[in-house]
Amino acid sequence: MQSTFKNLLYVLRHYKLATVTNLLGLSFAFLLFMLISIHVGHEYSFDASLLNRERIFQLENKRDDGIWEANFARPQLERFIAASPYIEAAAITNNLVYSSVRFGISASEGPDARSYMEQVERITPGYIVGGVFRDFPENTRVKNALYIPIMEKEMMENWHTGLYYCYLLMPTPESASVTTETYMADSRAFLKSFTIEDMRLRPLSDLYFGQPVRADAAPIGNKLRTNMLFFIAILIIGIALVNYINLSIALAPIRTKSITIQKVLGSSDTTLRKYLVLESLGISVVAFFLALLFLLFLNNVQWVTNMVGHPLDLYANWKIPAYTFFLVAGGGILAGLYPAFYITSFPPVIALNKSFTLSDRAKNTRKLLIGFQFVISITLIVGALFVSLQNRYIGNVDLGFNKENVLEVRLSMGAALKKGELFKARLLESPAIRDVSFSEFKFVSDESRSFIGYNYKGQHYYMSWLGVSANFPELMDVKMIAGRKFRPTDEAADNTQAVCVLSETAAREIVSGLSPEKPDDLSDLVGTSITDNDIPVRIVGIFEDVHYESLYKELRPMGLWTSAKNHYRRSVPERYAYVKIPGGNPRTAIEHIRKVTDELIPGYPADIHFFDTALEELYSKSGRQGALITALCLMAVFLSLVGVFGLVIFELQGQEKEIAVRKVHGSTVRQILWMLNSSFLRITLVCFIISIPLAYYGVNIWLRSFAYKTPIYVWVFLVALVIIMTLTVSTVTFQSYRAAMANPASKLGH
Q1: Fewest CB within 10 A of the end CB: N or C in the chain?
Q2: pLDDT higher than 70, residue 238
Q3: Would you say 537 and 498 are in contact if contact means Cβ atoms under 8 Å apart?
Q4: For 31-81, where are the E strands, in sequence order?
Q5: What's the mean per-residue pLDDT of the chain?
Q6: Exposed e or buried b for every residue in 584-609, given b needs 16+ CB within 10 A?
Q7: What is the DSSP letter of 141?
Q8: How far from chain centre, in Å, is Cα 461?
Q9: Which residues, in sequence order, are bridge partners of residue 407?
Q10: Where are the extended beta strands (E) located within 529-606?
Q11: pLDDT of residue 575
Q12: Comparison of pLDDT for 683 and 613, the residue scoring more
């Protein structure tokens, strides 16, 4: 076999670009496969770290509007728990870990004590257990937080305020169904008086990829989109292995002479094929270890972990490289079989005289392999373009308020309760700050927020309910349709009437329920009142809809309310300040906010964000998955061009004399290049037609997760076609130009 290795070294020396490109293509394909496999594993193992997750259930209820939700009044939960003999354990929470609530804590006292902001969660039982627990992994709904108790009698007299959530440990999944069915049979009339139509227990293992429910802000995944990413990663490996086959066949004229000499000297076809397959396996294994080195290097690279959305953690995911190695080994053997049989199939006379050509069947096989690569590449290019268009669309959607030149500042609980007005007064001392307003929760967020069921003239409705200071609608430039915005007198100490402004969607829901024949007459609501837990709240205005949640969700009814201090719901502090600044450099304003924060709340870490930045966080996951799709697209295009590169090498070796004859008969270099490009352009057009339904389906899946999405433009598909055709023509022309320019005599003289 010494001559075989010498011939291989000859190939490596004379075709360095092709061989190195192919090796790197395999390496990057294996790398991307492992990266995406880690991401997919992270998604599918959500909550897998929790013991007995198949027996842990979330209690949910369906309201009279037909929508399931996860929140309950405290006594409703205690009543349900007491009614079932099957429940092994129960935990009631406030789900604060999915809200904006942070506590400032300190490990020491005194003026030099440092404070830290900690996520909190309130849970039962109603006693304190001191201790430290091992951190939960990121992919679980149980968060690493400061856990504090819910008191035994807390809110036990309030049957209407749904601030609590419940998880139950059941002996079997069947017992969960029996429990809810029995409870509903015994309590249906009682629950109906609280607008609860049905109840269910949903297993924890079904929540992440399941249907989201109202008032549950826990993370959710998209199973179909996750599966698509994994499927694309497998296709990328397929493209890389197809490239290996193409390159091996492209180098056949050089390899065949050496192989044939060994045949003449007594080597059997079986032995030669075995070594050629082992050679393919060896190259694949080398590419795998290169990919593993790249992965180890990228393990701590921030932009990579940002792209996948979580640490790579190779130690915890050691099975993925192991599984990938077996995939690589199997793929390497399969990829080596066809070239091994092909290279050893020529009769010695033909091989030694270099007179072999591709059969029609072999040509069609090569074109099918290239076509497979083109279909995947075009599909991914279309996908990447629509991801970019959707991101741009989201950035340009009219949110219904002015987000420009607004800073979002999170306050500590103590500052929100006692120092809010002083904080505002001190900020307004700076000419770099125009106005300051407050909100009890983040204005725009998918976090848990207050959501109320209210009555209007005997009808029951639901909406998001946000307490703000009187100048909030004006600061955010919320546009009014009817009535007025808030006035300073609305939150004056002597005002005993809480007031609100409703969104257009909320107002239309009320009007359509009362007067279906006049759905557009919203102004009649101004001056009337809604009833929240028997407390009247006067409607003073109707405003244009605002997108207060991400564009993944349909627009839901919303109300903004304000009242005097210590009246109505003002027991909940306004934890967020929104600061309006002039355009230009915001440094002066930010420095002043930090200075005031340090003076009023010593040791408290100032948390200041541009409102634009806060909005971008809502789309971080889709942005990361979009980045993965873009990376896969680039890799697929690169590998496809490598396949074209290999095929051109081979076809040129079989067409050298044809090119020379054409030149003798007067063909120009341009005509010859067109002849060589035309077959590839035909393949590209056929592949484009095949890829259209695939790309359309994939784009639909991607956009389906958004309630507001970009249209599917025809021109995007045409742009993808132009991109792949341009790159293909460039590749073919680059590789063919020297053959087209060669002297015909040098080729016809053989």
Answers
A1: C
A2: yes
A3: yes
A4: 56-63, 68-69
A5: 81
A6: eebeebbebbeebbeebbeebbeebe
A7: S
A8: 33
A9: 579, 610
A10: 529-532, 535-543, 558-562, 576-580
A11: 81
A12: 683
